[in-house]
Specification:
Blueprint lengths: L1 H4 L14 E5 L7 E8 L2 E10 L6 E6 L5 E2 L1 H18 L10 H23 L6 H6 L6 E2 L6 E8 L2 E11 L22 E4 L2 E14 L1 H32 L4
Antiparallel strand pairs: 1-2, 2-3, 3-4, 3-5, 4-6, 7-8, 8-10, 9-10
Helix pairs in contact: 2-3, 3-5
Pfam families: Rogdi_lz
Subcellular location: Cytoplasmic vesicle, Secretory vesicle, Synaptic vesicle
Family: Belongs to the rogdi family.
Length: 248
């Protein structure tokens, strides 16, 4: 059931994965608004409006028509689900397990893949600000993003998130206390970094997100699957204890 939620190209449907539109929102400000178009594991369109707090200037960016952004977290989660299914299905239909330890070993391998799949959705990658600045996402938009704007897309649980960082250039006279920030899922105002022989500080951070229902379904099925695997392991352990019991 979890694998079906990822719209696998090997599912035999033959047709293209449908596109879904999601409206970005936040309970805080309306500095950032947008609509994202998701097609399986790819963002095929992004329409983002950004209000600059300094002068209330309204900026509008969209993906270039020839570009789409692959969401590595969804790809990885899907691949781990495929591996779990392969582990369960790559035996002859008449194959019989000979020992409980053989089943336990299989359950451990399946649970490892299911845990990795779930973790890819629940634990976004930690990135440094220079990594975000040098990533391909900055080249996706038309018009081109100004040098004082950084963006990052990622999955967090059942949500597709967009973070927009507004920067200001640090003057040479103010860099004596320069401390570059390390890797993080979300950088806070005041974080500093160096990129292209220029030093910057994050002045404003805006995070907007949208719920992707089928990601929520997949997370639920991961949890149920792991529980079923553990229940089978527990039953085998109980039977093994009875089998090993020798009354005097």
């Amino acid at each position: 059931e979890a694998s079906h939620r990822f719209a696998l190209p090997t599912s035999g449907s033959g047709g293209a994965v449908k596109q879904e539109n999601f409206v970005l929102s936040t309970s805080g400000t309306d500095q950032v608004k947008g609509v994202l178009t998701l097609q399986g594991d790819a963002l095929c369109q992004a329409d983002v409006h950004l209000k600059m707090p300094r002068n209330n200037q309204l900026l509008h960016f969209t993906f270039r028509e020839d570009k789409q952004w692959k969401l590595q977290q969804i790809q990885d989660a899907r691949n781990h689900v495929n591996k779990a299914i392969y582990l369960l299905m790559n035996r002859d239909v008449n194959y019989q397990f000979k020992t409980g330890s053989e089943v336990l070993k299989l359950m451990d391998a399946v649970m490892l893949q299911l845990s990795r799949a779930r973790n890819r959705l629940t634990t976004p990658a930690t990135l440094t600000l220079p990594e975000i600045a040098s990533g391909g996402l900055t080249k996706m938009f038309t018009p081109a993003l100004p040098p004082d704007i950084l963006v990052n897309f990622y999955i967090n649980l059942n949500k597709l998130c967009l973070t927009v960082y507004q920067l200001h250039v640090l003057q040479p006279s103010t860099t004596k206390n320069f401390k570059p920030a390390g890797g993080s899922i979300l950088h806070n105002p005041g974080a500093m970094f160096e990129f292209g022989n220029q030093r910057y500080e994050v002045s404003h951070v805006h995070k907007v997100e949208c719920v992707v229902p089928w990601l929520n379904d997949a997370l639920v099925f991961f949890t149920v699957s792991l529980q079923l695997c553990q229940q089978l392991k527990d039953k085998i352990s109980v039977f093994a204890s009875y089998w090993n019991y020798r009354p005097y």
